[in-house]
Amino acid sequence: MPKKRVAIVGTGQTYHKSHRPDVNGQELINEAVQRALKDADLTIKDIDAVVIGNMDHFEGINYVDCWSVDGSGGTMKPVIKLTTGGTTGSTLAIGGYHLVASGFFEKVLVIGWEKNSESDTTGAITTAFDPVWDRLVFAGAISGLAAEAQAYMAKYGATEKDAARVSVRDRKHACNNPHAQLRREITIEDVLASPMLADPIHLLDVCPRTDGACAVIMASEDCAGKVTSTPDWIWTTANRHKYTYLGDVNWGELDSIAEASREIYAKAGIREPRKEIDVIELYQPYSFAGIIWIEDLGIVEKGKGAEYIWSGATDMGGELPINPSGGVIACNPIGATGLIRCAEAALQVMGKAEARQVPDVNFAISTGFGGCMWSDMLLHGKRKPDF
Amino acid sequence: MTDIFSDVEPMVFKSRINVPYAWWTGETAERFFLALRDDKKIMGTRCPVCEKVFVPPRKVCPLCFHEKMAWVEVSSEGVLESFTIVKRQLAALTRKAPVIFGLIKLDGADTSILHYIENPGHEDIKIGTRVAAKFNEERSGSMQDIACFRPIS
Known about the structure:
The complex is a heterodimer. By secondary structure, chain A is an alpha/beta fold.
């Protein structure tokens, strides 16, 4: 149990783009940090510790915790770096939560960032896989996702058209988010006509490469109410890893998100997630996951994901909107991506999501996803947790 | 020496991954490199709050987080803050050993820059020695546009 309850009291993001040649890494980080401080009406002097992260090998800088202090404001403060692949951003959020929940730090600045444009994404991601058994056979991010999609389609009969409907939803939602990279609507025909990258994944089914940063300020219950009148309370977090080798994965179902969500529902007393959760910011790196993972999350029964998507229930104005921000398909500065999910969920709870606001959000979920099918999850609430 | 592998057949898997990098300097550093290349000038930024002058230039003051830094030219001469003489030809060394690495605080700056100190005949170099930048005739917009710093009396 946490020693202190923890709330998000401020968030900041860059306007994410494919390339940011006008700033270096520290300057990019600083843009997000300054916006988060302004949002919380705090100064860098108020911050007790910094947690920062990005993807290993993406920028080729191995001591980001130290190198980034000009931008993070970490000069002469405790700083740690966390990096866990795709889940880096959500792990940062969980790490920041632990630091405040432990009672050791009152206000923690959490930063995720990436300059994808500075290197070769697939080359760098390949280093995440086992060098003897998996690397050079299953390199990069897309192959694993394609294997998942194929297995799911074989089991439940979903189609490429079903998946395209998810891309169409997220790209439409992104038009409401000034921070998203890809802000143009697409059609199902556009998705199906886009180049096939790894069967059945088309170009428009999958996330882009983005330069961007996100910062979140977390505060303990002792001061959260003084910082903001609308804190986003972090109710609980969960994290699951399962496999080392790609051949061990239960392809077609995401066991890690299934277990993480059950832990969260049990802790928070959620019995009917579809009715009790008001919005989800899902780390959904490709469209098929928008069908498969809502089943694993227990939102709908196995095999019913596509039907639920087609019903419009996950669109803005639907029963359970997913990715009001436009999600990962519209914007993906990888080390920041999971933290953007967390920040966007916080904005929904705080009532600050502007054109992408879902009305009356009491509970929001944000997730993170990484390479060998692992998952992070956070439950955000308007009400202070009663445990 | 004993060959520790004499009784075993080492099983290793060799591979190489190519991850080329291209780092954006950003507009702040770009202005520094253009002034160096085109005018042989060394520019810094000054924080109006703490009044520190940073070289390399910072877009935002790392100490005050002030966002409106002022551009200032600093001298191409300064003081050696610390140094070492590298005698072994390390793999990462692009020049022929021995070379001197020095930290130079230029007149008008509050932070030091790292560069080579001209070597032959100056073995009596010490902390506090005054040095001046020696610019290359051919300049492309990088720290290598300065060949080295050389001691002056």
